[in-house]
Fold this protein.
Amino acid sequence: MTLASVRDFFAAKAPDIEIIVTPESSATVALAAEAHGVEPAQIAKTICARAGERTFVVVMAGTTRLDNRKFKDLFGTKPRMLGGDDVVEVTGHPVGGVCPFGLLSTLPVYCDQSLRRFDIVVPAAGAINAAVRINPERMAELTDAVWVDVGQDPEGVTSA
């Protein structure tokens, strides 16, 4: 999977979107923001979680934290983050390159409202040094994502 599956995804669904491969790692929000010249909040981080028996990915702004109360209200249970090996097994992408594109398994994708304040966000693209620049609405459309509000910003203020 990984970068090849993301390339296949975009070739089939959005050939106009270019995958940007950098010589340096962009595996963390800080590294990605530096590599792509954007503010850390514009990095669209992808979290692989479980709620009961359901496994899915949540994409949110890079500086937004998961709000456990909102998550529980929406999904009926506390979130359980998958470990690194499980993330690779379920998504096909390495930790630091996880994204909602070209997933190994058919997983529900949720986009947090925190992304909507940007015209362009930068999610990973299946490798620790690959990403795309994309409008969050288009990302949600391409991945059949459902918009949710499960984030809080760094100061603990609920995202809009």
